[in-house]
Amino acid sequence: MNASRAQAAAIDWPRVGEQLPKRCCGPLDGDALARYARASGDDNPLHLDPAIARMAGLEERPIHGMLMMSHFEPLILAWRPDLALVNLSGKFLRPVLAGQTFEISGRVIRVNGGESPSVILRLMAHGQGRDLALVAEAKLLPHPCPST
User: Fold this and answer.
1) pLDDT value of position 9
2) Would you list the domain boundaries of the chain?
3) Beta strands in the chain (DSSP E)
4) What is the CATH number of domain 3-28+63-142?
5) What is the pLDDT of residues 58-110, one digit of tens each?
6) Claim: this prediction has a pTM higher than 0.70
7) Where would I find the H helices in 20-89?
8) Phi, psi of 62, rounded to the nearest 5 degrees
């Protein structure tokens, strides 16, 4: 048995339906949005200028969707440090505005064993008022460098 197969066989795989712990994120203010814009190159003025956000019909600047998605990896790593995030995709449904908090959560929707073991998660971000703001899917594999 090769090393990666032995590692996969040694993992205590999560069960379909298992919930990740919920986590409250934010609030993110205008300074946080500006720092993210500089780091990511996403300098869309909708996220940075309150006047432009108001012209678009929003009360405040929306948080960058990818900034919201970046909160999923620490949640996953805290839940299962033995698994590595290898793919993350999402659909943005409603904006979360600067100054608001959002809650992230997830659950296991598929566990694949055999030759290509993996875990598929459904991840969600709910804004204030429990509106679903973001739905995502993540693929996890056995961590290539397990901690000792």
Assistant:
1) 59
2) 3-28+63-142
3) 19-25, 83-92, 102-112, 118-126, 132-142
4) 3.10.129.10
5) 999 999 999 999 999 999 999 999 999 999 999 999 999 999 999 999 999 99
6) yes
7) 30-40, 45-48, 50-55, 65-69, 72-79
8) -80, 145
